[in-house]
Amino acid sequence: MHFDTILDRLQKSGKNVFTVYDISKLIGKSTPYASLMLSKSKKVKRIERGKYF
User: Which tens digit of pLDDT belongs to each residue from 1-53?
Assistant: First the structure.
């Protein structure tokens, strides 16, 4: 699944702030993988540990 698609799904669901766990459930991958994916993305900003917008 492409990262833009993931962000679109989150936006359509009304989630502006999401966690690593939310992303891992959405893509069906492990939490460490989702964390790595979020940390490398330039499209999301980290609010605090484990929370992004």
Answer: 688 888 888 888 888 899 999 999 988 999 999 999 999 999 899 999 989 98
Torsion sign over Cα 27, 16, 31, 40:
positive
Phi-psi region of 19 (alpha: psi -120 to 50; beta: other; left: phi over 0): beta
Pairing of strands 51-52, 46-48: antiparallel
CB 53 within 8 A of CB 18: yes
18's enclosing H/E stretch is strand 18-19
Contact between 37 and 3 (Cβ < 8 Å): yes
Sheet of strand 46-48: strand arrangement: 18-19, 51-52, 46-48
Encoding tokens for residue 38?
């979020």
